[in-house]
Amino acid sequence: MADNFNFELVSPERLLLSEKVSEVVIPATEGEMTVMANHAPTMTTIKPGVVSVKLASGQVQKYVVFGGFADILPTGCTLLAESAVPLSEINRETLMKRIEAARAEIDKADNHEHKTRLEQYLAELTHLNGVIIPA
Fold first, then answer.
1. Considering Cα of 54, then 60, then 61, then 65, what sign does the dihedral take?
2. Using one digit for the tens of pLDDT, what is the confidence trace for 25-46?
3. Where in the chain is the domain with CATH 2.60.15.10?
4. Do the beta carbons of residue 94 and residue 50 sit within 8 Å?
5. Which residues 6+ apart lie within 8 Å of 75 measured at CB?
6. pLDDT of 107-128, one tens digit each?
7. H or E, element range at 85
8. Under CATH, which architecture does the 5-87 domain have?
9. What is the pTM of this model?
10. CA angle (134, 95, 119) in 5-degree steps
């Protein structure tokens, strides 16, 4: 049986989850990452994606995050999301609003580096849209 550790998922709006968990899968910028108890200390940025949390009870909960960062220690993990909602609360309209806002920002970008970051964010949102809400 896997050891449990503390996990918190926090957005500016609210604390979404603070529980003992056995496993968390996060959409790290460099690739999907599974965090378990006794993980090496790590800090990573998060891209838009789905966070899958396996609670100590065995129940799995999923959340959609729109960027942020995770602070991982052997005893716990804190994910500070720019924005996050339970997967059950997300819909195509919400994602399309974020995609349209990102497109508008790209059109207003005043330098190449900023435009490139926005284009990457738009690509991640578009991918996320296809993954969680299939056409």
1. positive
2. 999 988 999 999 999 999 999 9
3. 5-87
4. no
5. 5, 6, 37
6. 888 888 888 888 888 788 777 7
7. strand 84-86
8. Sandwich (2.60)
9. 0.81
10. 100
